[in-house]
């Protein structure tokens, strides 16, 4: 089943690209995702960090059936790496709920950015 074939909340999670993955390096991420991951330092991982992220991303997807999702805009590389490692140990239901909460954070921050960027008198 493709990552886009699953409806509902799991489908929302499956639509997310791997953190610091192929899409970031090939330039196929959305501008917003690319900027958020770069701001968190995910575009400048050392070779060891990149290998660790790739391994943990695969472990996470194997365990839960969807990619690891975190609001990169609200964190940094150190915390992302720690959370990716720690969250691989959670129950699937807990991770689905956590992933959806992270999607909500991403959406809320992006919408706030759009609204504020369109405000006539930016503060």
Automatic annotation (TrEMBL):
Broad EC category: lyase
Pathway terms, separated by semicolons: Purine metabolism; urate degradation; (S)-allantoin from urate: step 3/3
E.C. code: 4.1.1.97
The entry's keywords: Decarboxylase, Lyase, Purine metabolism
Gene3D superfamilies given in the database record: Oxo-4-hydroxy-4-carboxy-5-ureidoimidazoline decarboxylase
Catalytic activity: 5-hydroxy-2-oxo-4-ureido-2,5-dihydro-1H-imidazole-5-carboxylate + H(+) = (S)-allantoin + CO2
Annotated spans, Disordered: 24-43
Biased segments, Basic and acidic residues type: 24-38
The Oxo-4-hydroxy-4-carboxy-5-ureidoimidazoline decarboxylase domain, residue ranges: 9-112
Matching InterPro entries: OHCU_decarboxylase, OHCU_decarboxylase-1, OHCU_decarboxylase_sf
Protein family membership: Belongs to the OHCU decarboxylase family.
Function as written in the Swiss-Prot or TrEMBL entry: Catalyzes the stereoselective decarboxylation of 2-oxo-4-hydroxy-4-carboxy-5-ureidoimidazoline (OHCU) to (S)-allantoin.
Protein name, as recorded: 2-oxo-4-hydroxy-4-carboxy-5-ureidoimidazoline decarboxylase
Species this chain originates from: Goodea atripinnis
